[in-house]
Amino acid sequence: PAGAASLRLCSTRVTREGIRKPIIDRIIRVDHAGEYGANRIYAGQMAVLGRSSVGPIIQQMWNQEKDHLKKFNELMVAYRVRPTALLPLWNVAGFVLGAGSALLGKKGAMACTVAVEESISDHYNSQIRALMEENPEKYKELLQIIKQFRDDEREHHDIGLEHDAEA
């Protein structure tokens, strides 16, 4: 039947545009989980330091992370990617990491931010390299998104350094 053919097309390993679905699935799933975890870290930091002098800075970074998560939620639907089964773990672990680092004070929270954002930036750079090697034109939209988010993460990293993360 005609309907079965279209369903079958969605389950193939290469989409109509020639985009390799396993690569896209892996990138979107991992990045969604990372952005979800980052949101939970900032939620934990805000729970502890939200009313302190560093609260508005954490909130600003968290707002960008919320935008990142929203975009990856949209990409998951558009590309039919299932979320990681580990989201419940990221929920708890991210909040505990954020709150725990914030209990050490502003410097502890910013040290956590620098470490996490550096790791995420490196991860995004690896994805950018992989997509560029594969075919930059086919992955143009995803590359633009990842590059922008990588730049935002680097900005968060630098904000952490400016607010005594190394102390």
Provide a quick synopsis of the model.
With 167 residues, this protein is mainly α. It has helices at residues 2-10, 21-49, 55-78, 87-103, 106-134, 140-162. Keywords: Iron, Membrane, Metal-binding, Monooxygenase, Oxidoreductase, Ubiquinone, Ubiquinone biosynthesis.
Q: Which keywords apply here?
A:
Ferritin, 3-demethoxyubiquinol 3-hydroxylase activity, mainly alpha, oxidoreductase, 78% helix, Ferritin-like_SF, metal ion binding, 167 residues, elongated
Give an account of the 3D structure.
- There is one protein chain.
- Helix 3 packs antiparallel against helix 6 and helix 5 packs antiparallel against helix 6.
- Helices cover 78% and strands 0% of the residues.
- The chain has 167 residues and is mainly α.
- The protein contains 6 helices and no strands.
- The chain has a single domain, classed as Up-down Bundle (Ferritin).
- The N terminus is likely disordered.
- The longest helix has 29 residues.
Q: Biggest β-sheet, characterized?
A: none
- In whole angstroms, the N-to-C terminal distance is 66 Å
Tell me the helix content: over 70%
Structural class: mainly alpha
The low-confidence parts are 1-14
Query: Could you give the order of the helices and strands?
Result: HHHHHH
Under the CATH scheme, which class? Mainly Alpha
Report the portion of residues in β strands: under 5%
What name is given to the CATH topology?
Ferritin
Number of domains: 1
Radius of gyration: 18 Å
Number of helices: 6
CATH superfamily: Alternative oxidase
Overall mean confidence score, pLDDT: 91
The shape is elongated
| CATH second-level architecture | Up-down Bundle
Number of strands: 0
Pathway: Cofactor biosynthesis; ubiquinone biosynthesis
Organism: Phaethon lepturus
Keywords: Iron, Membrane, Metal-binding, Monooxygenase, Oxidoreductase, Ubiquinone, Ubiquinone biosynthesis
Protein name: Ubiquinone biosynthesis protein COQ7
